[in-house]
Amino acid sequence: MPRRNNRRRSRGERGWHGVGDTRPWRWTAGASFEEREGAAAEPLGSGYVRREPEKTVLYQLVCAHLETMLAEVRDEDEEGNGLPWFVERELRRYLDCGILARGFMRLVCEACGKELVVGFSCKGRGFCPSCVARRMDDTAAYLVDCALPVAPYRHWVLSLPFRLRLRLARSEELLGRVRRVFVAQVGAWQRREARKLGLGDVETGAVCVTQRFGSRLDCNPHFHALMPDAVFAENAEGRVELRRLAGPKQEDIEWLVERIARRALAALEDGEEGEAPGALDRLRAQSQQLGLPAMPPRDGGRLEARCEGFSLQAATHLHANDRKGLERTCRYALRPPVALNRLSETESGNVVLQLKRRMSNGARSIELAPEVLLRRLAALVPRPRVHQIAYFGAFASHAAIRGRVVPRRPRRTSWCTEPPDEPEGQLELPLPEPVVARLDLMTSGAEVIKAPCPRERTLRWADLLRRTFDTDVLHCECGGRRRVVAFVEDLEEAAQLLARLGVPSEVPVVARARAPPQRELFERLPGFTADTIYPDN
To answer: 46: part of which helix (H) or strand (E)?
Structure first.
């Protein structure tokens, strides 16, 4: 599913971004594009099967209970404000994700003429399984292909005490303090280990992802950090080398979690609470009051320690040549809070959420009311312009050696007609195998091998769909390639064209807010109707 691109395109010879088609486009009314006149209204080929997001359990629940949940939250708020605007916008935009009546793109195969109609996405950052999954794949591909050099990596996970989760979820500034303490203490331990090897001035690197949810959709901010099991040192010739470090031991994890807990609690002593608690904070607090058995600790507890409610785990290690495993780890840290295959609906109308691990009582699922599920999803929506990923050390944008460790980004090829020039001093890839094998040495330095293939910051939408859903929308079953022939964004025009094509063009109807049970009695009295009691609905 392509994402909306709001950048206004000029007339004439300009190809569709990400498709590589340089045919002239025809401007039509309603912010639409056609390769030729009437391309959007031509009949579709036989055998066309459209994506139907409105038939999923999550979509039907949002349609049926969104207005009721929003009305209940407004009634519970003393000032009657309800949820913040960005949370309500995220929930409502999810109802437009993949709906053809909200706009679509039309593609045709150049060989057999088979066509597809692809809807737009909502580009949500909170809980949309499709959009967050594409963002997950795009960011993971960028980290592996463009940011993280070839090195052995370790996955560090820091969980926070229950008493601090709501406070940190409310304040991005306090959450950033704890994140900086976490990465700084692990980096200090790595520099201490480097000094044992006789290394003096070294630099560490880290990419830290902030997750805001738990497996039961509760408000549980915690951190996933990817850090090389190595340090970057400059040799006598002025070149940056990768010096491998030994992995941490159990006593190192215990020492680290104690220091992190002490420094983090000290950093939070004079922290400001931020805004007064509102409806969103109340939903976050309710999501932590599950009334369910606790999740048991992981089996074995290898390289895992706890102190003052802080939990540090560093058992996952990735070899330098395991780039696929590195991408899987990045995807795990960036995953969406809920997957559609884990949701099911009972006969009573409740929702069953399958868990990845058993709870302490042996249960593998929990049952939630629809309004409760929506409240938990709303509590996970991040604020606008809040970064989910933070870069530290050699990977930070202001680091002095970042250009010598991370490949330079090429120019945007979609904005220029000539191919970009190769950056000066760029390390040629792939490197010989003996150089890669040198990464296994413990003390001797190895030349820094940058990421495999520098590319643009954002994947082309067709490549992103193939990487996410294992489906190439530009590749036809006959072996030919599809091209974009129409792009329709105007709602009225989209409805007319879909009706002409024989494709369902109805927008799913969002159910009205239901009255509380105690108010339904008044509706049975003579002279009272739902419109007189609830005129806003």
So the answer is: none
pTM of the model: 0.79
Query: pLDDT by residue (tens digit) across 184-232?
Result: 999 999 999 999 988 888 999 999 999 999 888 999 999 999 999 999 9
Query: Residues of 156-165 as b/e, b for ≥16 C-beta within 10 angstroms?
Result: bbbbbbeebb
Q: What is the mean pLDDT of residues 101-125?
A: 82
Q: Which residue pairs, CB below 8 angstroms and at least 24 apart, start in 289-297?
A: 290/216, 290/218, 290/366, 292/216, 292/359, 292/366, 293/359, 293/360, 293/361, 293/363, 294/359, 294/360, 295/215, 295/216, 295/357, 295/359, 295/360, 296/357, 296/358, 296/359, 296/360
Please return the burial class of 339, using the count of CB atoms within 10 Å of its CB with bins 0-12, 13-18 and 19+. Answer: middle
The count of C-alpha atoms lying within 13 angstroms of the C-alpha of 227, restricted to the half-sphere facing its C-beta, is: 30
**Which tokens is 484 given?**
């974009």
Give Rg (Cα) of the chain: 26
Helix (H, G, I), strand (E, B) or coil at 25: strand
